[in-house]
Amino acid sequence: MEEIPWFEHDKDDLTSAQQEFAAVLSARARSWSVDPLDTVLLPPCHTCFGELLAYLDIGDPERHQGVLTIGAHYDGTNVRADKLHNQNFSRPDAPTEFTFTSAGTPTEAAHRTADWFEVVLARPLVRCEWLYEGKVYALRYEYTDDGRGLSEGFETPLAPPELQERFATEGVDRGSGRINRAGLGEPDRVVHVRGMKSTP
Length: 200
Fold this sequence. Notes:
The chain is of the alpha+beta class. The protein has helices at about 15-30, 105-120, 160-170, 180-185, and strands at about 40, 50-60, 65-75, 80-85, 100-105, 125-130, 135-145, 150-155, 190-195. The strands form two sheets. The protein has a five-stranded antiparallel β-sheet, with helices on one face.
């Protein structure tokens, strides 16, 4: 069975500098605990930014759910990386905690970018779950090193009746899928998704 390469690409679509950058990223990614299909390299002609884009989808394999997309735009000299929009792959208007910039030769820039990917992948990510009658009615993905939430969801029909009644009385709209973690109390279950496990 043929192995799928990490950051798969067609060399004909890339300049020599871009090929060098891509080759380093691909080689480094072999040691990451990610599916090669979750690593994507788009040549400048396939992006609306006119720059090479290397991105990675961080997901929860147990629930088959995407959690975070991070990526780096490379113009041949400079790298600008951050959390990306999961559909158009644009960087946010304001830098986030994931922001990374670098410059240098293609090899230097690629190694620094790979270091950045590895730092993000190593962060301890968990899935907090709130259950009623054995079913998850609310969940939140967060980093345990700083408690920062990445994504969350709420299923009103699965929530306890008293909680549904409280939300109805308070006029809380759960249609957005957002949760009020403080209003739910401590999660019933915390599942380690990836990264280093926190020690008690």
